[in-house]
Known about the structure:
Layout lengths: L16 E4 L5 H12 L3 E5 L13 H12 L3 E5 L6 H12 L4 E4 L14 H29 L2 E6 L2 H5 L5 H21 L4 E8 L12 H5 L7 H8 L9 E5 L2 E5 L3 E2 L10 H6 L1 H4 L5 E2 L10 H6 L10
Parallel strand pairs: 1-2, 1-4, 2-3, 4-5, 5-6, 6-7
Antiparallel strand pairs: 7-8, 9-10
Helix pairs in contact: 1-8, 3-4, 4-6
Bound molecules: 1,4-dihydronicotinamide adenine dinucleotide (NAI).
Amino acid sequence: xxxxxxxxxxxxxxxxxxxxxxxxxxxxxxxxxxxxxxxxxxxxxxxxxxxxxxxxxxxxxxxxxxxxxxxxxxxxxxxxxxxxxxxxxxxxxxxxxxxxxxxxxxxxxxxxxxxxxxxxxxxxxxxxxxxxxxxxxxxxxxxxxxxxxxxxxxxxxxxxxxxxxxxxxxxxxxxxxxxxxxxxxxxxxxxxxxxxxxxxxxxxxxxxxxxxxxxxxxxxxxxxxxxxxxxxxxxxxxxxxxxxxxxxxxxxxxxxxxxxxxxxxxxxxxxxxxxxxxxxxxxxxxxxxxxxxxxxxxxxxxxxxxxxxxxx
Length: 312
Ligand code: NAI
C-alpha cells in the first residue's frame, strides 16, 4: 500500500493525549492511526452506529485500538456517543490523565429533501454533529484552559459552506461548527487553545452513495489526515481558520465583503434597489477576519468599529 508519509515524522505527539471521535472507520480511523504513529496516546471514540445514526457496535472502536496496539502505539476505546462528551473526556482523564487535542469527527447523515424532512431527521443530525462537537469540546475545555494548551479541529463540510440539495439538516449543523470553531479560537487564544475547521472530501460509507466510484478511488481518507495532524501540533499557531481538504489538495477559505453602499439617512427598499449593484459589487472587496474588522454601518456612522469586548 502506498504510504502517504514519504519523509520522517518530525511532528511528534509524545506525551500528548488525543481524542478522535468517530474514529472507528473512515476519516477518524486514519487520523487516530497517524496520531498514534506519532507518539500520541489516543482515545478512539466510536459509538459504532449506522450511517444514518441509531444502533451501536463496540467492536468498531476496539478494532482500531487493536490496530494501533499491533503497530506499537497506545490507545483506548471509548464507545460512548459524542452526545455524552463528558464521558469521552473522562475516559481520556482516567486512562491518560490529560487531554490535549480534540478532533470532532463523528458524524451521520439523514439526507432528505427539506419538504420531506422530519423533526427527527433534523434533530438527530444536529445532535451528533453540532451538539456532539459542543459536548466533547466543552468537557475538554477546562482541562485545556488549566494546562494552557489545547487543539480543537471541527469537521465541517462543503455542504455547509455552499449548501447541498437534500442536506438542510447536515448543512446547518456543519455551518454551525464553523461558528463554534471561530468563537473557540477567540475564547481560547489567551490559553494557547487553537480551534479550526476543515471541510474534508474522502471516500467513506458516508460518500459511497453520493460520489461515483472512480472519484472515490482517489479520495483516500489519508489525504485529509495531514491537515488534522498539522493543525493539532504544539508548534501550530493557526486558529479560527477554515480549510477544504481532500484527494491530495488543500486550500483555505475566507469571507469576502463587498465595499457595499452607505446611506446617510433611513432609506426605502426602492432606494436600496437603485443601488443594488453597489451592494453586490465584489470588484472592490475586503476579507475581514474578526468582528472588529467587519465593515458595518456603525463604522460609517460613528467612525468607530463595532468591537465586542472579550469576556473573561
Ligand atoms: P464514517 O461514517 O466513515 O465515520 C463516522 C464515524 O462516526 C462512524 O464510525 C460512526 O460510527 C461514528 N459515529 C456516528 N455517530 C456517532 C456518535 N453519536 N458518537 C460517536 N461516534 C459516532 O464517515 P466519514 O466520511 O469518515 O466522516 C467523518 C466526518 O467527516 C463526519 O463528521 C462527516 O460529516 C465529515 N465529512 C466527511 C466527508 C467525506 O467526504 N467523507 C465530507 C464532508 C464532511
